[in-house]
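Deviation from plan, reported transparently: zinc ion complex.
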Amino acid sequence: MRDIISYTDVVQNEGFNIQHGMNFRPQGKPYSILLMSVRKGAPYNDSFDAQTNTLLYEGHDVNRNESDSPKSVDQPMTSRTGALTRNGRFYKAAKDYQNKKTANPEKVRIYDKIGSNIWSDRGWFKLVSADYVFTEQEKRKVFQYRLEPTNSDGSMSPAEVEEFEFSRRIPTEIKREVYKRDEGKCVHCGSSENLHFDHILPWSKGGSSTDAKNVQILCGKHNISKSDKIQ
Ligand SMILES: [Zn+2]
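Because the crystal trials were delayed, the predicted structure below was used instead.
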């Protein structure tokens, strides 16, 4: 699994042109897709808790054609016709799971925008809860979804899962800093194909995910040869 990708890669992964940040089971898929960004000036308050690797994802505003200032009105649960909005569909899925109406949480694939046409594949999460609350910060009601990491798409070996878990604990700001410093290339061979964020001192040996000095970019080949050595 690659964790530095372009928007074209995201589209290729999913097989359709993703037009919205929130996609509830798009194209008849058995899972949902959320696009996020914690960049400065990002439109929504998404955040990662690096300790628990939990994602807090904010719902989205009313469509521009329904309000002159979408940021000043409550994020909508339903549309004018009374149908659930994208917010509403995610909210219902979370509540159904919280209220034990469904046994399994909604499975969600997360892509994180790190920079202009630079995305990070955050992998699989499960939607464990949701709130629809008034916040002092925004002076209106917004949706807040809590997502926890899950490994279960079955496509990765245990070693790959472990490696990937380390990688996705790296905060977006650190990824952006490292990407810039390493000029978007493998530090060993200069390749810009199949890139990964790598911990110089492994997470399992106490290496930090929140210090750019301990993170570097490796291509798939050098990433694999390194993880062979660790084992
Ligand atoms: Zn390389």
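Residues 86-98 form the longest helix (13 residues). We consider this an acceptable substitute for the interim report.
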